[in-house]
Amino acid sequence: MTQPNTTEPLFDSNASATLERVTSTFTQRGNEYADTWRNARWLAMIAAARELGLVLTVDQCRVLAAAALVDVK
After folding, report:
1. pTM of the prediction?
2. DSSP code per residue over 28-46
3. What are the tens digits of pLDDT across the range 14-48?
4. How far apart are CA 64 and CA 66, in angstroms?
5. Per-domain residue ranges for the chain?
6. Are 31 and 23 spatial neighbours (Cβ–Cβ below 8 Å)?
């Protein structure tokens, strides 16, 4: 009689490794960039709006940032 395979399936092993890398990346970027979405730290967007004579609210910055990200993703 053969022994059952007690090792972790390859898919699970690879998926876990990928999730660890992803977690590491977003933790690093979170520390570097702070909470842009909550704190509206879109400094370039705010500066560009001012050059155009506009004052954007936090909600307007979020909408424009989301739209820009959709275009580049």
Report:
1. 0.51
2. HHHHHH--HHHHT--HHHH
3. 999 999 999 999 899 888 877 778 877 788 888 99
4. 5
5. 9-35, 40-73
6. no
